[in-house]
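Troubleshooting: if your tokenizer reports a length mismatch, compare your output against this known-good record of 120 residues.
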Amino acid sequence: MHPDLAPTTTATTPVLDGLLIGSLGLATLLFVLSLAAYTRRRTRSVLLLVASFGALFGYSLIAVLQVLGMVTEQTHHLVEHALVLVQSALVLAAVYYARTIERAAGDDETTLVPESRREE
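Known-good structure output:
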């Protein structure tokens, strides 16, 4: 393996460790909460958002793995940018799906709004 591509350990500090653990914990919490939302709503647009939060978790995980020296900096950047692209595409797909396809099918995702407050 080329020396520039070999995994290296990165010097960590307690602050950096705390930030990494916090970001991974927050990403995990958001992913679990999005799964809970999907079990309640069961719509494709919410499922796309669950996948987006999964990409956010992956984004945090790859940062932790890079700091621990388990992946190279080049791999970290490649995966990180790919996950940003995937996450953006999933959010756009969720919005598009919710506003066009589900609305056309009669399910405009206003189920959380009481009928008395819905606009006709």
